[in-house]
Amino acid sequence: MQALQLTHNKTLEWVEVPFPDLETNSDVLVRMKSVGICGSDIHYYKHGRIGSQVVQYPLVLGHEGSGTVVDVGRDVTRFHPGDRVAIDPAMPCFDCDQCRSGRPHTCIHLKFLGMPGQAEGCLSECIVIPETSLYRLPGELDYDAGALSEPLSIGYYAIQQARQSKPDGIGILGYGPIGMSVLRAAQHAGTKHIFVTDKIEQRLRIATQAGATWCGNPLSADIVDEIHKSHPQLLDIVYECCGDQEAVDQAVAILKPGGILMIIGIPECQRWSFNVDALRHKEITIVNVRRQNHCIQDVLDLMATGNLDYKDMITHRFPASDAHEAFNMVAGYLDGVMKAIIQF
Questions:
Q1: Residues 130-174: tens digit of each pLDDT
Q2: Which pTM does this prediction carry?
Q3: What is the CA radius of gyration of the chain?
Q4: Cys staple from 175: which of 59, 199, 203, 288, with CB 3.0 to 4.6 Å?
């Protein structure tokens, strides 16, 4: 079978690889149908690393996926050949102290699809994955929607982690797919005043159409001043979704005393810096968001019932043969791309 390998920076090649075998009795063989391109895939594609995670070439990328069950191990009880499934790319051990305390997303022995030194990704014709990492696709959802359930679950989880049921005002700094996921989850939770920033005008137009209260471009406006004027009491929560130091500084400035800064974006730098005086005097809480935890089933249910809007997230679809073009488009923020899906 064929798999899409990252063989060097910005170099992808379809190569012939051995067909995967079921390694344990709880494994499931899945034929891939849809795979979304994530910002973390782009970090590996462009730079070959995210922090301490350094690519050892070749590596198969991709972790936002869905497909059809082809075969199952003898201990698998929830799935059968022909079932349509969404994939949770995380494969925890379920035995370490993190797993036992209800935090499998920070499992000490975690394996994650498309991560260096952990597991090959799902940009492949077929993959083998544990039964515990699969979720049945409701009949109303197609394979593309199944692939979106992973990024959408991050936004949903971020809203839960903020632990404020109905904040008066929130900020979303960076309106890529994760920023959109936060906005959709916040709308579902009943948040009314949502302020969005991004450096790409097309994305701001999408945010406006999606119902954002206010949108601004930090390249052409004083974001802090504009939000102060529009919402003098400042914001309860700011979700940093772009991994940018300037956005972190803006977040601290637009948070009210007692506010919460949610760090979701993956930065290219290795250290953040903060205005300590503002942090102390405002007593700002900083919360890091690590992927998601126990949210995919909830998100699939909300998508299936129409209570979590997602259909405007996908802006481009590519056949698997054009995967390199898809990666270049996402890496260059070309043609107004929000989420690109590779279809098998």
A1: 999 999 999 889 999 999 999 999 999 999 999 877 899 999 999
A2: 0.96
A3: 20
A4: 203
